[in-house]
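Why do we care about 3D structure at all? Because function follows from shape, and shape follows, mostly, from sequence. That is the central idea of this module. The next example makes it concrete: a single protein chain, its amino acid sequence, and then its structure expressed as C-alpha cells.
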Amino acid sequence: MYKRVLLKLSGEALSGSEKNFDTAVLKDLAQEIKEVVDLGVQVAIVVGGGNFIRGKTLEQIGMDRVQGDYMGMLATIINALAIQGSLESEGVDTRVQTSIDMPKIAEPFIQRRAIRHLEKGRVVIFGGGTGSPYFSTDTTAALRASEIKADVILMAKNGVDGVYSADPRKDPTAVKYDRLTYMDLLNQGLQVMDSTATSMCMDNHMQLIVFNMNERGNIVKAVSGENIGTVIK
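And the structure:
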C-alpha cells in the first residue's frame, strides 16, 4: 500500500513494565519492523523520550522550559540508539540521524542522505526532536515525514486503537472514529497530536494512521492498507 512510511513511537510505548525501556518490547518491535522492511517498504522512525523525561514536567517543578526540552531531546537519542541496537540484532541495517550534532554517536540529519539511506533499504531513526525547544516529537514526525516525502505517518499509540471522542480509558461512552480530517482534530480539540503538528500535516497533505502498537502485527497491517485504527487525511 505504501512505499515509504514514517513510524512515530512514544517513549512510553518502549517502557512496557519497566521504568525506562523494556528489552522484550524492543525485540518485538524490531521483529515487526523487520517484517515491514522485508516487504520492500522504506521505514523511517521518530521516537519520543517520555519514558525518561518531559520538558513540560520539569517546567512544572520550576526548571527552565528550554533546558528541560533539551534534556528531553537527549532522551529521544537514547531511545533511538536502543531501537537501532534491537533492529541490528535482527539483521536490519540502520542509521541514526540526530538534529543535535553528536558525530561520535550518530549522523547529523541531512535530508538527501536520509532519503538515500531509505532507498538502500536502511531504516533511518531520527533522534533529538527538531533540535529546538518548544516543539514536540509529534511536530518532529510531521516535519521529517514531509522532508523525506513519506507516503504516510504511522502513529503507534500505547494501548489505544485509534482516535476517540474522549479518553476511552476514562469515559466508557467514548466513540471511536474510523476516518477524520485534520480540521476535525482542530475544531473538536481531539488530542491526537499538538496543533503545530496537525497544521503541518494538513498543509503538506500528509496522511496519518493512528493505531495500537501493543497488538502484534498492526504495523504490517497498517503498511498493507488494512482497515485498522483511525485514518486522518
